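Exercise 7.
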Amino acid sequence: MKKFRAIAVAMTVLGLTAMSANVLGTVNDKPITTEDAELYVSQTQPGADYATLSADQKKAITQRLVERLLFIEQAKKEGMEKDPEYLKMLERDKEELLVRTWFVKQFKNTVVSDSEAKAYYDKHPEEFTIPAQVHARHILVKTEQEAQALIDQLKNLKGDDLKKKFIELAKAKSTGPTGPKGGDLGYFGAGQMVKPFNDAVFAMKVGTVSDAPVKTQFGYHVIYLEEKKPSKKVPYDEAKARIIDMLKQKVFSAKMAKMAESLKAKATIKIDGDANASK
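Solution. The predicted structure, written as tokens, is:
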């Protein structure tokens, strides 16, 4: 019996310690917890995470919660709990919370099977395909003669020597904003660049320079193709969760629309100015 009591006391102490670890402070003996802070941050700063805030930001949040508790106490002292406007708003909010909670429950009860998700994946391959991309550099100059002169300087180079020289010339000659970065455009897909540039770069071989100047509305380009990434299909296992969530949303919306029509058909609905009111 003594051993049992000792264990019980120890568990109680541990439980109190765990609870106190979540308490950030108290206001007139009322605790402010990390859960309060997390909820406050989620409501006032959508997308923010309390756990990732700086120490100063967390202190500021705690102060806001202190003020909130003090304002609540003051409002109660002034009898706001019996104020007609407050009671009206409270009733409205209760109904809103009721419907919102019911919606959440209806959504949780919406089921989409693995087979349905897989069927959607197989039927819509374009939605799960990452298009081909290229990694290119360019040198932008004003005239075709300047561009051709650069191509002539590069045409007998290959491999790392070609890349190194291209970067050097881009930094020295390019009038475009990427010049200081060696003309680096990063990765991009088909259709992201103006058509003449797009057509030229996607027809090139990796590790080569365009064999002629490419004219666009910006000037004349000399292009170096650094890498190509072929199109890639996202594996089903990676897409599965997103597909199920998307299908659940569709099923849920259809379910709610159908239920709304059913409930309307059974209800007596009168709308001012509506000559075709429901029964």
